[in-house]
Amino acid sequence: MEFGLTESQEFLKDSARKFFAGECPSAEMRRLMETDTAYDPTLWSKLTDQGYTGIIFPETLGGVGLGKVELMLLMEEAGRALLPGPFFSTVVLAGTILDAVASLAHKNKYLAPICRGEVRATVAIVESNASWNPRDIHLSVANGKLTGEKLFVSDATVADFIIVIARNGVFVADSKARGLKISPMRAMDLTRKLYAIEFNDTPAEEIGSTANLARAFDIATAALAAELVGGMQRTLDIAVEYAKTRKQFGKPIGMFQAVQHQCADMYLETESARSAVYYAGWALEENSPDAATAVSIAKMYASDAGRTVGNRGIQIHGGMGFTWENDIHLYYRRAKGSETAFGDATFHRERIASLVIDSGGVSAKSA
Amino acid sequence: MDLNLTKEESAFRDELRAWLADNLPKDWNEWREKPIEESFPYLRAWQRKLQEGRWAAVSWPKEYGGRGATLMEQAIFWEEMARVEAPPMANSLGLGLIGPTIIAYGTEAQKKRYIPKILSAEEIWCQGFSEPNAGSDLAGLQMEARLDGDQYVVNGQKVWTSYGWIGDWCELVVRTDASVAKHKGLSVLLVDMKSPGVEVRPLRQMTGESEFNEIFFRDVRVPTENVLGKVNDGWNVAVSTLMYERGSYGARLHLIFKRAITRLIELSRSVQRNGRPAAQDPLIRQKLAQCSAEIEIMRFNQMRAFSRITATGVPGPEGSIQKIFWSELNQRLQQIAQELLGPYGQLLGGDPRAVDKGIWSYGYLRTRGNTIEAGTSEVQRNIIGHFVLGLPRSY
Questions:
Q1: pTM score over 0.90
Q2: What b/e readout covers B40-73, taking b as 16+ CB neighbours within 10 angstroms?
Q3: Alpha helices, DSSP H only, in A157-211?
Q4: Which of A15, A350, B182, B220 is most buried, with most CB under 10 Å away?
Q5: Which of B265, B294, B394 sits opposite A356 (nearest CB)?
Q6: Cβ(A173)–Cβ(A146) below 8 Å
Q7: Which architecture characterizes domain B248-388 according to CATH?
Q8: What digits encode the pLDDT tens for the residues A220-263?
Q9: Is the per-residue pLDDT at B218 higher than 80?
Q10: Predicted confidence (pLDDT) at residue A365 exceeds the cutoff of 50
Q11: Looking at the domain covering B125-233, what would its CATH class be?
Q12: Which residue of A has its CA nearest to B297?
């Protein structure tokens, strides 16, 4: 049993960290967040050159064929850099759903261009009831036409196509299709733009049934938790650095236990979230019977910890933490968006409860 | 990353399971609720039996009677022991903490003298570390050891000594040089508890039990050959013991906590809350789920830490995460039990209406000590702050 990363996993993580630090440093991230889309075609082609756009997809489709643990590591590093733009929407969300539900013909048509970096995409799931439970989806498709509204759709204006989760199936609509109207939702996280989409008799192509969505949702949920871990790590690093250098009463503030112990708690929460995310990645990769529970454990813990680590990080900075120029609030904003996306901690605790209380329990794999 | 057992790990587990199937005592349930003074010979016999199969100290090197087990195998060992609800071993401090320290720092003569009797539970060991004025600030301890010929003369008081009442030998931290900085003047002595001048008194704790003792030393003579490690290098020897203490609890506690939460989930189906089973109450469901999840995360943290130690070779200050995590989690678990049981939660063992023979009222009180014993949560956070994050020392 080995819970450490393999050499090639370490290599992937290291090179991703260097790549994001080089190609998307704080100044670039801030430049992109001030644009309407937070999308940069040059950065996208560099992500493609790294193989990131096809990371977990089959080589036959132009992907790299790596596993879910590797996806977690990449997302952790993307989260550390607060990578702006449609990477999560396109690769993790749309890509994973296509991989899970689509036929080979549809994969060739939609997923292969994602792997090759030729298209951007997103997925429309939630409706006005704001529920992440697929049972609460009302929009249905009749005669190949979509009518209704989807909310909180990330990166829709740069998407070439939009995957729509309907009551009666999974559909693809061209983003320029007739009767499709995209309007921005002004949200906290400036690096991942959200939109409302209205469909009015919009033509759409059915690509699969909703029956196979659960696993794709689980992969995306775990990846989002991984991204949160990266953000927590960055927040911790910034806060510890500040606590070492900022002086009050003639001493570095990190010398005061009221500050130091906050840092220790940030570390404990970050490490614990990371353990849970890596385990979830492994359980998904192995198709372990406890994979769904593991994903909920990871998202539950990371959702709460992402917020509390952010709170502590800002508090440690005092007034500086409340300024626009300090990056820490940008992570705080992303953490709030990611906390609610794919279900917040309360949502996932209820899912764990239904798994461990109601059905007698599928527990994590023990030796 | 591969969480499947390796071939060697599976073989280790299968061998242990087979051995336990043949040797696990069937009558432990009749003994477990008796006072430890009464059950102690039983625990000694169990440890002896384990060592006949070379299972008492699996982490120890083979040449000293162990199996040279990897950390993962040690985790498997504790999980299997918890799974079958095996009795504890009599000499748990000797096996877990003091033996490994003697193996690391002892002379050949010391190893030969002490190690076999630790394994056989013939000599029970206790730890003389904390003093009334040296708790978290352990290095500030005052117990004096004055050199007189080829003997040290020891005077002072120790406190919070587990197994003091039955201990044959004590790993005792003393001050051998009062003229240097506090960390630099300490030494570790191996002290025969039957020496003249040693007096052991029970310390009654808030649960009403006496797990711990106070020990008084008055002109106790200890031969210089009983110094463990170098004279005035006692701080390093003692810290090494403390690292063993914090290292592996996550693996041992996972199944124990899991059994507790499983029982609480079971109870939640029969306890009524707002006219329906508590298992259907949204707030209770949230709390049970949070606790179940954290029990799993405790284990994930432990496994990751083991992999890191295996890669780097030494248990590090990250053990402090484990200590904070399990102790605070255990307190939250007990609080959920109290909420679930309402007024029944306070009933002590012996009351006919007590739930599960009073284990929940006992647990509530006993776990209050968890964030204090083996290094307070505050000290653990200091360790993380300074040694892991590199913040300046706060004390």
A1: yes
A2: bebbbebbbbbbeeebbbbbbeeebbbbebbbbb
A3: none
A4: B220
A5: B265
A6: yes
A7: Up-down Bundle (1.20)
A8: 999 999 999 999 999 999 999 999 999 999 999 999 999 999 99
A9: yes
A10: no
A11: mainly beta
A12: A276
